[in-house]
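Weekly structure sync, notes
Attendees: PL (lead), two postdocs, one rotation student
Agenda item 3: pending single-chain targets
PL asked that the sequence for the first pending target be pasted directly into the notes so everyone works from the same version. It is reproduced below exactly as submitted, 275 residues in total.
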Amino acid sequence: MGNQVEKLTHINYAEVPTSDPNGFDPDGDGTRIGVSYIFSNDDDDQEQDDNLDHFPPDSRPVSHEEKPFDPDDELECVVYYRDECVYERSSGAASVSPESLLAKCRPGDLLEFVATGQYPHWAVYVGDFQVVHLHRAEVKNNFLTDVSQGKKGRIVNGLYRHRALPPEVIVRNAMDHVGTRDRDLCWRNSECFAAWCRFGRREFKIGGEIRIGKQPYKLKLLFSEKKSHVLEFQCLEDVIMEKRRNDQIGKDAVMQELANHLNATHDLKEECFVN
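Predicted structure, written out during the meeting:
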């Protein structure tokens, strides 16, 4: 389709302006500085195609694939559109086995499968033990237990604050796109696709919002009761990509990445002052 966005290189905290994670501007200007940028596609599983892998070989995050999922390493965050909260997640949300999840699912539910060191994988439950999901550049219809690949899962209907469509419409949205692949896809990852099926909002689609002008989205990362950090974005699509990257590398890695950048910025300012 004509709205396909060309894949660009990912930018991390070390390459963008940022601010104090305590929520204070070190220069005293009052407003915290954020960032808005376009991300490359992320893959939803650990078996990535080489041509879709957006991490340079020398900066690939350490894989935690063999470690059990640690909910305490999840980063709490809130997403605002202007002053309205559109997404909120607390850390430590319970996840269960695929078999236990099946007993709780209803058609139209959003599901999230999680594993330490991997991107979360989202799917729409459509009934009869099956889900529809975006996987490796194709919308597929599979059994829930097959999609989970042994990962724990949870129902995540309440993360986004938008009003959900009727269950039958959610299921139809998902089923109507089974088989869509490659250049015909309108979604950058499994979360965007699943959320679009449930809420039907264009901002979950590729190019659904124009990246010009003021940055209306804020992603607030909550490290503790006293420490937080805010980034600004021009569209929800970019917010989701950064949020998923944080989920993949984990809370501790995000904190270390941000601390390294702040220290480097401080050293650079001191060097400029001395000169």
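Discussion points:
- The chain has one domain: 13-274.
- Residues 251-274 form the longest helix (24 residues).
Action: rotation student to compare against the earlier draft before next sync.
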